[in-house]
Amino acid sequence: MKKTVVLGASTNPSRYSYLATRRLQQYGHEVVPIGIREGAIHGIVIQNGTPDVEDVDTITLYLNPQRQEAYYDYILNLKPQRIIFNPGTENPTLMRLAREQGIATEAACTLVMLSVGNY
Known about the structure:
This protein is α/β, with parallel strands linked by helices. The chain has a single domain (4-116), classed as Rossmann fold. Helix content is 31%, strand content 20%. Strands 2-1-5-6-7 form a five-stranded parallel β-sheet, with helices on both faces. It has a two-stranded antiparallel sheet with strand order 3-4. α4 (92-100) links the parallel β6 and β7. The protein is globular, with a radius of gyration of 13 Å.
């Protein structure tokens, strides 16, 4: 299973970051939700700030490109295998920076990837 950081996590059940966290958990992936507000998603505590997370396979983004800028160094320093840019989060600058460090990037929807079996 792939340890996944959900960056932009929300406790709001109607948000895609919430749905992705739940679905990843249901598929057996270790999920680390990171958001700006405290809370939990079905028992998984949403971490704030830039917590140390080791052995990250995937970062799935739920922050718009402008909000991502503050996290560039954090995202790259986690050294994920890949970054998924969900709809509305596509960011050519971060994609280029990631690729320069050997990190794969995908403009895709985490929920769709899970449902069709290509996560």
